[in-house]
Write a structure and sequence with these properties.
Largest sheet: 7 strands, mixed
Helix content: under 10%
Order of helices and strands: EEEEEEEEEHEE
Number of helices: 1
Radius of gyration: 13 Å
Strand content: over 45%
Length: about 130
């Protein structure tokens, strides 16, 4: 059974930085593609970033491109989301997700194609 645990959320001022972490347990980390999604109050869940299992190719939503970076540490079975130059509109609950195997970047941007989810961590950006 795959388990995902996020950490690193909190309150940050606009223009600041925050680093989210997601630890995966229960399976071989390298065999999973990982994604970050977020959901703001009253809004649909949206794709933020993804990193593919085999080749670590990354993908980003246009709204965070150039500000956020997704990375992974295979030895730690963890994926990270470095958030720089944050804006109030980045305020949301951020969740990491995992799906086994390789997939196209288009698939990795779809929440319904992930089978495992963390509990989410709140990120609040003050203006």
């Amino acid at each position: 059974q795959v388990q995902l645990v996020e950490s690193g959320g909190g309150l940050v001022q606009a223009g600041g930085s925050l680093r989210l972490s997601c630890a995966l347990s229960g399976r071989t980390f390298i065999s999973y593609s990982m994604g970050w999604f977020r959901q703001a109050p009253g809004k649909e869940r949206e794709f933020v970033a993804a990193i593919r299992s085999i080749d670590a190719v990354t993908s980003y939503a246009d709204s965070v491109k150039g500000r956020f970076t997704i990375s992974r540490d295979i030895a730690k079975n963890a994926v990270f989301l470095q958030m720089n130059s944050v804006k109030p509109e980045d305020t949301a609950v951020y969740s990491c997700a995992a799906r086994p195997g390789h997939a196209t970047l288009q698939i990795l941007a779809r929440a319904n194609d992930y089978g495992y989810w963390g509990q989410g961590t709140q990120v609040t950006v003050s203006s």
